[in-house]
Amino acid sequence: xxxxxxLIQEYRKNKNMSQTELAxxxxxSQGYLGDLENNRKDGFPTFEKLQLLAKELTNTKxxxxxxxxxALSFKLHIGALAKLKEPNEKKTDEIAIKGEVLExxxxxxxxxxxxxxxxxxxxxxxxxxxxxxxxxxxxxEIEKNxxxxxxxxxxxxxxxxxxxxxxxxxxxxxxxRVNLLNGGTFILLKSLNKNYSDIIxxxxxxxxxxxxxxxxxxxxxxxFD
Length: 225
Prior knowledge:
Blueprint: H1 4-14, H2 19-26, H3 30-37, H4 47-57, H5 61-76, H6 80-85, E1 91-102, E2 105-108, E3 114-120, E4 129-133, E5 146-151, H7 157-160, E6 163-169, E7 172-181, E8 186-190, E9 199-202, E10 209-220
Parallel strand pairs: 1-4
Antiparallel strand pairs: 1-2, 1-3, 2-7, 4-5, 5-10, 6-7, 6-10, 7-8, 8-9
Helix pairs in contact: 1-3, 4-5
């Protein structure tokens, strides 16, 4: 990546956003954005413009900061990107969306259905993936239209007890809060929405239970017409 125009274009395409839509959301003219992306602009965007772009092209505060740092590195020419990212070692990775959550159940696909960029660090597992929440069945904890990020390597009791996880039980997948109760004699799968039933799994049915990963974050995109 050689200039800020390429950076903006990459982030915009990862968000499946047109130049027209980005212009409307930021208040920056489409002509100006087009000149930037095609490297026809000699000047550099103001910091205020970078903040507007970062807000619309990223999903989290960490990603906003990384975008601005990366953009400024083209202007400063002093290795700012490497120096400023070093303390928290944050980066963004593209991960697969492998299914959806509907009516309290998760539906996984054999092949990815889309991709999303997320902020990661050295503690984040290498196999993380996302599911898209299609309704309010996980509310109020997780909103409709969120992308929930799941780490399949976090599946032991130390990581999932009293945490939200992707669970497989009797060939059905659920997003539930997992509780090991009564000295381990049964497992309670607590629904996040009171309109959906909890599931109690006795020790005699433990072979039907499998944790497929801990939910490590939820990302929400809000569109404004």
